[in-house]
Amino acid sequence: MKVSISELFKIEIPIVQAGMIWASGWRLASAVSNAGGLGLIGSGSMYPEVLKEHIQKCKQATKNPFGVNLPMLYPDIDQHIQTIIEEKVPIVFTSAGNPVTHTTKLKEHGIIVVHVVSSSKFAVKAQEAGCDAVVAEGFEAGGHNGREETTTMVLIPSVCKAVDIPVIAAGGIATGKQMLAATVLGAAGVQIGSRFIASEEASSHINFKNTVIHLKEGDTQLSLKQLTPVRLIKNDFFTQINQAELQGASKEDLLQILGRGRAKKGMFEGDLTQGELEIGQASCLIDKIMPAAAIVKEIWKDYQEELTLLRRY
Predict the structure, then answer these.
(1) Which domains does the chain have, with CATH numbers?
(2) Is the pTM of this model over 0.85?
(3) What is the per-residue pLDDT across 30-46, written as a single tens digit (0 to 9) for each?
(4) At 222, is the secondary structure helix, strand, or coil?
(5) I want to staple 21 with a disulfide (CB 3.0 to 4.6 A). Which of 44, 75, 136, 290 is the partner?
């Protein structure tokens, strides 16, 4: 029997807040951890000294376990790992890279390692690399995404069948009902990103948050598949990228359009027209900005109520 993530992470509620760039600082991570879930600091948008500051402030703000999300395609990865080890962060979620690269070193220092995957093939590789669990992230997710476009409903049972370590479901999950569906499919818990973008503690710009709570189905689309696939809100920047892709633009052309700091411009600085606005399909289910603790409480309450109803059948 697979260990529960509540037991693995020493948390009360099997909800992980995703480590989203420009949104997941110490305030959000500590708020989720204090509410009984697992908060993650998103290191992808941080310089080494900034990550160290966020870890130290998070340790001051919560006595509960928290972790760091470590996208391996970003610079400063070695310095981030050294900071994580020195600050004795208990849990690391790696993504966007080969788990073999850093898992052994992290585990040698007693750190629990979880890797984000988009297929059962990569889940097996993560297990072989020594990861303690995997996040199986479906096509519906925001941020970095899999090129295969496998939906969460298909991906979760496939990954659960392929590995023996716990599987955390991600992609398109924003409610307790969806969390219950993921557990029925075999998931040991859920990782949720978009719902926490619309939290008071998220460091993303209020313009971005207000845009998210008004999105409808079809307002996002997976883009930049030649580079690193991301799901974006359809704005002027998306239209420019989409038209270039339809016209057969090369990677170099797309990189020139993308430029530098595009995600910061959109999600952190609030430029809604020329910024890169990453969000998942579950955004169409979000209609208000709430404290992170209230989000955790609402999802968990919804989950338990639906589970009780299901047991009556």
Answers:
(1) 5-204+285-311 (3.20.20.70), 206-282 (no CATH)
(2) yes
(3) 999 999 999 999 999 89
(4) strand
(5) 44
